[in-house]
Every structure is written in C-alpha cells, then in structure tokens.
Write a structure and sequence with these properties.
It contains eight helices and eleven strands. The chain has one domain: Alpha-Beta Complex (Spore Coat Polysaccharide Biosynthesis Protein SpsA, Chain A), CATH 3.90.550.10. By secondary structure, it is α/β, with parallel strands linked by helices. The chain is globular, with a radius of gyration of 18 Å. The two termini are 34 Å apart.
Length: 259
C-alpha cells in the first residue's frame, strides 16, 4: 500500500464527512486506505462515517483516548509506506498528496513533510514554527503577550517574516496535516501516548530530527484548514488545561524546550 490516511475525530461530524468526501474525491486512482479513529463522539460521527463511506475503516472508541493514542490506533491499523495524518477540519488536494509522495521518493532522508495550510479565504496560516523557549511561552501563553503584540521573538517563532514559498527544513509544524514516512517512526507508534492533546506534534518532530530525519515544510502541497483552536477560547477550558499539562510533560521528558 502506498498511502494510509488517518483521521482523528471528536464531535466534528460534518467536518469529518466533508474531509472524507475530499479524500474520496481527490485520491481516486491513488493506491490508499483510510482509517478514522473516533474518540467517543456524541454527535454520531462514527456511524455517519460508516454509513456514507463503507470503504473506510472506523475505529469507534468507547472513551476519549486523546489525540496521540487515537493516532497510534490508526497507525497500527494501516500498512501504507506513507501516512497522511489529518484533522477532520482539513480539506486535501489530491495533486498535493501525490507531490508529497513524489518528493519523499526522491528525498530518502525526509521523515516528515508539512504541507502549506491555507485559511478558507485562501490566506496563509503560519503553521511551521521554531522550537519553544521560555520567552515564547510567556508571550504566547500568558497575558504578557498582550503587552507586546508585535514582539520580534514571536514573529521569529512563527516564521512570520518568511514568505513560505520554498521547501525548507523547519523545527516543527502543526499536527493538523502531516505526511510521514512509516519507516521513520520507531516502536510502531506515531506519538508518545503520555500526551493527551497538544505537544505530540512538537515531540514527534523533535524525535525524528534527533534520529537524523529531516522535517520539511513543503509549500508545493497546500490544504485548506478551518483551524478549530479550542485552546484559544476562554481563560479556563479543557483544551487549555491539556495544553499546559502536555507542556509540562514535554518539559520533563526533554529537560527543557529546545533540543
């Protein structure tokens, strides 16, 4: 199998069906398999996916296992040489997928590709980043950031002054869409399951780079990302709590934020 598409679902029924429609349409003629790992959605996501897309394997968890564990379920249930990991709020482009596969075939030291992510209006999302520092955390995750909205440190972290026009190595990128070489993944798991939500993407990129693989931002591939940022809404919510919890676990695991 050339390609395995893995989608992690949690209470995003309509977005999931839209995502699956795009996968079905855009990958026609491409050897692939699709797995949806649903984290106990209460909106009928798993049943709707089964009914509308009978060729898709749906893993319906009885409880919310978190993003990392669900992604690993999908990884273990697939066999593709390459893995396209998607959030359901991403709409793929078939030519982009084939472009990433071709690039991987010709770049044997590339372990993970990050496609360009676009807003629904076609504008660029700043989806690749440098590794965190204490300064960046203070400016991005505390009220201190409101005092310095145009901080040079934050712009550098977001790579905001780069035109995002050429492929280049980066530290890490958002896990909303990742194209991964299966053999680069060790121990049969995409992510460290100690992360329930957030920082699993940072951790994966750091692990791959530490093992000698390249993490590459690949703008010749472009997907639309509706970007449901739950952690940005409200002062205290489950997503924000899990973000801080995962940050602490990342810090303990790596004894810091930068490699």
């Amino acid at each position: 199998m050339l390609l395995s598409v893995i989608i992690i679902s949690f209470n995003t029924r309509e977005l999931l069906l839209s995502c699956l429609s795009a996968v079905d349409r855009e990958l026609e003629g491409v050897e692939h398999e699709v797995v949806v790992a649903d984290n106990a959605s209460t909106d009928g996501s798993a049943g709707a996916a089964r009914a509308s897309f009978p060729g898709v394997k749906v893993i319906a968890n009885r409880e919310n296992l978190g993003f990392a564990r669900a992604a690993n379920q999908g990884f273990r249930a697939t066999t593709g040489r390459y893995v396209l990991l998607l959030n359901p709020d991403v709409t793929i482009n078939g030519a982009s997928v084939q472009s990433m596969a071709a690039f991987m075939e010709g770049t044997p030291d590339a372990g993970l590709l990050l496609p360009k992510l676009l807003n629904p209006d076609g504008t660029l999302q700043l989806s690749c980043r440098t590794f965190y520092s204490l300064e960046i955390l203070a400016l991005r995750r505390t009220p201190l950031g409101r005092l310095f909205p145009d901080s040079r440190a934050v712009r550098d972290h977001l790579m905001a002054d780069w035109d995002h026009a050429e492929a280049r190595e980066v530290d890490w990128g958002l896990g909303a869409a990742m194209f991964i070489r299966r053999v680069a993944v060790k121990d049969g798991a995409l992510f460290d399951e100690r992360y329930f939500l957030y920082f699993e993407d940072v951790d994966l990129c750091l692990e791959l780079k530490s093992a000698g693989w390249k993490v590459i931002y690949f703008p010749r591939a472009a997907f639309v990302h509706h970007h449901l940022r739950q952690s940005a809404s409200g002062l205290i919510n489950r997503a924000r709590y899990e973000h801080l919890r995962s940050l602490f676990k990342f810090w303990l695991k790596h004894r810091g934020l930068r490699p």
